[in-house]
Each structure stands twice: as C-alpha cells, then as structure tokens.
Amino acid sequence: MATSKEEFEARLQEFVGLEIGAPEVGADLVNEPMIRHWCEVMEDRNPVYTDPAAAKDSVHGGIVAPPTMLQTWILDGFDMATPEKQPMNKQRELHAVFNEQGYTGVVATNCDQSYDRYLTPGEQVSGTTVIETISEEKATAIGIGYFIETRTTFRNQDGEQVGWMVFRVLKFKPSAQPAAAPAGDDGAPAAPVRLRAPRTHDNGWWWNKIDEGELHIQKCGECGVLRHPPRPMCGECRSIEWTSIISTGKGVINSYVIMHHPPIPGYGFPIACALIDLEEGTRIISNVVGCDLDEVHIGMKVSLSIENVDDEMKLPLFKPAQ
Amino acid sequence: MSHNTLDFQSVDIGDSLPDLPIDLTVSLIVGGALVSRDFTQVHHSKKAAQDAGMQDVFMNILTTNGLVGRYVTDWAGSDARITAVSIKLGTPNLPGDTMTMTGAVKAKDDAAGTVEVEVTGKNAWGDHVTGTVTVALPMGA
C-alpha cells in the first residue's frame, strides 16, 4: 500500500511521548547469586559486589549490585529468544510501522545510563519506558533511517527512582546487505585486511609483477617515455604500444602525510603515505615503513621493499635508504 | 574504608588508565548475554547472527556496559561509585578478536567530587565502544 512520506512520518510522530506499556517488573529481586554470576563472566573482582566483609567496610556498607546491571533486573530472559512470545507494546507497534515501509534493519547506536544509587539485594526493580524522540530521516553508512530514542526510568518497590537509561537505535532500510566477512578455518572471523587493488586489463600485469617481487615502470613502445600508474596509451605520442622496465626502487620523498583518519580496518593507523620520486623519473605513492613516523621527511632517500602485508597481498613499500 | 581507592585530589585531568586487553571468546559473548538475562538469539546462536548479516554471535550492550564499568572501577578502586555511563556503539565484538580498553581522565567536578573518564574499547575492526564514565571518588584527608 502506497503511503506518502508525510503520512508515514505523521504516523511515526503519533508514538512520540507514549509509554510503551505497563511498567516492566523484574521477575527476580536484586540478589547475590545473579550478581556473582555477572561478576564471574565480566571478571569483575570488585569485592563490594561479592565479599560481604569487604562490602561492609566499603562506602556502601554492604553488598551492592554492579550499577551496569541496571537493565538486567527487568529483562524478559528466555522469552526473548522467541520474539512471537513477546507481548505487543507501543515500541513493537512502532517497529512494525517501520518494517511495513521497508525500514527493517535495527541497530543500537547509543546507551546512556545514570544511577541515582547502587541497588542492594532484596530490592525489586521496575522500568517505565517512554518513546522520547524520533528523528528526521537520516542518511547513514548502513542505509537511510530514523533514530528512535527511548527513556526508561527505573524505580524500586517503593516507587523511588534508582536510575534512568536513554537508548538510541537506528531503524533503517538496509542498503546492500553487507557481505559477512569469511570465517577462518577455525571458525573465527578473519582479521580485517587492507582493501584489495582492483586488477584490470590495464593494470593487472603490474600487480602480477609485484607478486613476483618486481616493481615495473611502463615504457612507451614508440617514443620510450616512462609512465606510472599503468594505462593503455602514451600521454606523449598516443601510442598504445608499450613495454616495461624494472625499477631500481631507489627514490626520494617528494611529499607525504601521516594518516590517522578515517581508521579503515586492516591498516594499523597512523601510517605514512608518501609520494616518491623514483630515480627513473616517475612517481609512485606508497607507505614508508621501517622507521619512526616522525623521521619521515621531504627529501628523505628511500628504497623499495616488496613485502607481504597479509597472507595474500604484496605491496611495494619503501624504507629509509641504507 | 578501603585503602585501595584513588582519592579525588590525587586524580588529575589527563591521567591515563592502564590498557586492558579482553579476549573476545564465544564463552564471554554468550556468557555475558545470559548473565545479563538477554536471550536475544543473535547473542547465542551463530545461525541467527548469520541470518542477521553478521558472521558470528556478537556481544550484547549490557556486557559492553559491564566491561566498561569494570574497567573504570579496576582502576579507581572499590570505594569509587559510578554515577553514569554514556556509550556510543561502533564495530561489533566478535569471537576470536581482542578488545583493548583504554581510558583517560577528561574532567573533574570539584563540587560533585566526580571525575569523568573517557573510555575506548577498540577491536580489529575499529572502535567497538567510545564513551564517558562518571565516577565519584572519596575525598582525601
């Protein structure tokens, strides 16, 4: 059914300010076994959570729950594994409105928690959640969508506020399904690696020579002028005949940057990216390695070192000349 | 009173917390989800996680919060009281990776006796978590 964007957004705004349903009441009182299980897994050795004597001597005067367990006390537990078992509430209705329009993805982006005080064993926690804001439509790296903020106020059995949480999710239209990175043989996810250079009809031969351990420079078959990066036609005489020579790999840094951002996975930032004048006369851009980054400078003499940067990829890197 | 806790006066803006590398095992990810009562399938079923476009089970937010809180009280001591945790989530924590926590004191509030610690948890894919923990420290003698 076609719905205009205005109608859709008006429908969304009807949810703003609503409580999602009745308060969610913890099935278990705050208790020492659940606290201990949490601390085991987090490897949290703070004795105020598990050691009665140390806790008595502390600022708390007795055992307390880790404050970051706040939401744990009201979660549904095993029923969460079966979404159909979850009762309908305003939050799920809102998500259904998004799903109908193709905003099927959901990802949590922010979580702010504030603790009025630490909880103690025997307290019963309940949470009241309000849909606080829905943003305008935003373009994000994972697709267009809307940010939804909910605020949960936590109280104990006497109605005393013990903390609050603002939770922000992006409800989005998945653009392209991101390809899951391949898992390694042992089932562990592969570590991120550098982006692969596309090998085309025009430059594939050059990368193949790098794989063989040689840095080639393309040479015009008619006028003999050198060129880099590889391309089909001579910029001087327009000949499409070409050969190549092997570079000595000796060069001088013409210019460089120390790159910090964006921290693309697989690169180990910061890295030195340099424009290098090779002694044959062409230039190449690559990384300078084998020295401290603050030693890199314009005019520095460097020499080629073709190295594996991961299991598969070889790159022509440059090191300080000996 | 405990003697293992930093007092407010002894902490300066710019002080660094020791780095803490955390091995991201399946046991930690699944265990963290279950002790936080979060049985959402993507945190314990690899198939459900893969159906959601991830390569494996991934850490839930409560575990991230728990590790962030632990990291700060490991440093500050047992009489430090966390009053707020504000985090932004980035790359997922997946099995086989390591998350390294780093932190530094960003601000001090003399009136409240609290310090703000900026915390980052970085894994191989980038920043899993960045945020601020506000912690109340005892006043020194």
Defining traits:
heterodimer, A: about 325 residues, alpha+beta, Thiol Ester Dehydrase, Chain A, OB fold (Dihydrolipoamide Acetyltransferase, E2P), 3 domains, 6-stranded antiparallel β-sheet, 5-stranded antiparallel β-sheet, 5 helices, elongated, B: about 140 residues, 3 helices, 5 strands, about 25% helix
List the helices and strands and how they pair.
The complex is a heterodimer of chains A (322) and B (141).
Chain A: H1 5-13, E1 24-25, H2 32-42, H3 52-57, H4 90-100, E2 105-115, E3 126-134, E4 138-140, E5 143-155, E6 161-172, H5 204-211, E7 216-220, E8 226-227, E9 242-246, E10 250-259, E11 271-278, E12 283-288, E13 301-308, E14 314-320
Antiparallel strand pairs in A: 1-3, 2-6, 3-5, 4-5, 5-6, 7-8, 7-9, 10-11, 10-13, 11-12, 13-14
Chain B: E1 16-23, H1 26-35, H2 46-51, H3 61-76, E2 81-89, E3 98-109, E4 114-123, E5 126-136
Antiparallel strand pairs in B: 1-3, 2-5, 3-4, 4-5
Q: Count every beta strand of chain A, where a strand is a DSSP E run of 2 or more residues.
A: 14
**Element order, helices and strands of chain A?**
HEHHHEEEEEHEEEEEEEE
From the alpha carbons, calculate the radius of gyration of chain B and give it in angstroms: 17 Å
Low-confidence runs of at least 5 consecutive residues of chain B: none
Determine the fraction of residues in helical runs of chain A and give it as a percent range. Answer: 10-25%
Rg of chain A computed from alpha carbons, rounded to a whole number of angstroms: 30 Å
Query: Architecture of chain B, according to CATH?
Result: Roll
Please, what is the average pLDDT of chain A?
91
Largest sheet entry of chain A:
6 strands, antiparallel
State the helix count of chain A: 5
Indicate the CATH class of the largest domain in chain A.
Alpha Beta
User: What class, by secondary structure content of chain B?
Assistant: alpha+beta
Q: Describe the global form of chain A.
A: elongated
Largest interface: A-B, 54 and 50 residues
In total, the number of strands of chain B is 5
Total helices of chain B: the number is 3
Q: Give the distance, in angstroms, between the N- and C-terminal Cα atoms of chain A.
A: 71 Å
* Net shape of chain B: elongated
